[in-house]
Structures are given as C-alpha cells and as structure tokens.
Amino acid sequence: MSKSGTVATHEGKIEIDLDDSHHPSGAAMTARVPRYVLITPARNEVAYIENVLRSVIAQTTRPVRWVIVSDGSTDGTDEVVKKYAARHDWIELVRRPERTERHFAGKVDAFNAGYARVSGLEYEVIGNLDADISFDDDYLAFLLRTFVENPRLGVAGTPFREGNGTGDYRFSIEDVQGACQLSRRDCFEAIGGYRRLRSGGIDLVATLSARAKGWQTKIFTEKVCRHHRRSGSALRTGMSASLHRGRMDYLLGCHPVWELFRSVYQMTNRPYVVGGALTLLGYLWTMLHRAEPLIPEELVELRRREQMQRLKGVLRRTRS
Questions:
Q1: pTM higher than 0.90
Q2: Among positive and negative, which fits the CA dihedral 95, 101, 103, 105?
Q3: Among 11, 149, 186, 288, whose CB has the most other CB atoms within 10 angstroms?
C-alpha cells in the first residue's frame, strides 16, 4: 500500500511517498532530496582533483551548480577542470590570482568567491567540498536526505578515510569536518558563513556557531569519503603538525581537562607517545603565553561545556 504526504522543513513543505512494504516499522519515506550547490576551493590539486570530479559527476543527484575556485593554481589544475566544465554546464571554474602565502584564510576567500557565484540560484543546501576526496555514487544523496529527515539539522557530513584508517569520531560526533561539509542554507546564512581564520579550524567554528544558533550538527557514520592526501600535509607534517594541533586546540577553546585526556588517548596511536605528548605541549605552551582565543567567548564556553558533558558520558560508560 502506498500513499503520499508532506514533511515540514525550514524551506517549506517537501512531498514524500509512504510505502508501508519496505520499512521495518511499516512506513518508508522516500523524499525529494533538496536542491544543492557545491563549492570547491582548489590550489595546485592536479594530482587529486580528477577523483572528486568523477565522483560528483557520477552522483545519483547532481547539484544545481558546482563552482570550483582555482586559488592561484600553477600546476595544471585549471586545465583539468576546464575539460570537465566543457562537458557539464553545471560545473563552473572561477580563477583567482596567485598568492605567495598558503593559509586557511585564503581558502575562505576562495570559498567566498564561489559563494558569490551561486547567490542568485535557488537551493536549500550548500556544500563545501575538498578537491582531494572521492566517494560513492549515492554519497551526496544520502547526506541530503538527512536534512529532510531532520528539519533541525544545520550541518552534516561523514567520516573520511586516509590510507587504511578512519578517524575516531566517538568523542566528537557533532563536529563535522570540512572534507565534505554540507550546510542547510538557512543555517549557513544565520552563522554568517565561514570565519576567516589563518591558522585553521574553519569547519569546527562553523559547527560550533550553528549549535550556538540552535541548529543540530552531526557526522553520519553510515558513509565515508576517501581523503587522498593526509589532512594538513600541505602545510605541516611530523612534530610540527602535533605541536600545531595542540596550539589550535587552545586557540579554539578546548577545555584543559579534555585536552589532557585527548593527549593521553593520542599517545596510544602512531606515533606512539610522542604525538600526544607534543599535542599537550603545544596546548600548554600556548596557554602559558596567554594567547587570545580565535573565537568569541560564548563559543569557547559552549565548546568546553559540550566537551565536559562528553567526557562525563565516556567515564560513566567506562565504569559500567
């Protein structure tokens, strides 16, 4: 037996079909996925960008527009994108001038250049997509459906896999990372878009800001995307990366107790002991120098409150 109905969302009402025969509880919802746009900042990604181009083109639900912003690329990235844009009129290449510095604020500038190109389009969800990832054909449709199923959902994403491993998201399931971060348009506009932070943490601050505005954010573990380059490897590696991680933890409002437990936990992973110890050292060094946090006080308070709630939950489960 099938029948139809509606689901109320922030964008209005979406038509659905209810088919009792395929749902364990007696009713299945197959909803129209929201219209969406994608923006991909890309800087010298010629070795990787064809992976994401092929992935998006193969999606069961394609975007209204996909703007790829070449952030001063000099390695042939533009030529690869042009080849695909010539075949698909919904792919657009935007070229920005070369810049000598490489930092995360530049990535936000590139994103904003793409964001300006979609300002006149009708869409409900906007995606920030890295240029060095790939995913299954139904990956984006899956994420889009989560916005229909939960009208309070503001930001959604999945874990990403690097090499043979996938990150541990048990302690931060709400902190959607930026390899593929989809945001409801209403939510993205409410938080004012991405903050221009040179040192990083842009995706984290976006999810914190969304929760501060009353939206929900979540990593959905049913799917993963593949990250073809190690996170942060374009800027830092080895000991420098561990020290920077601790420094950024402090600047982005991590609670000291949370950081201690986090660092000890990291000592059990490669590089054993050293990575966690350097992360904690970076945090303490930044704290002792009384550096100003990069985010507003209300976001620091929100993050620390959430972390202590999570930590209490972990400790309760450990004792039981």
A1: no
A2: negative
A3: 11
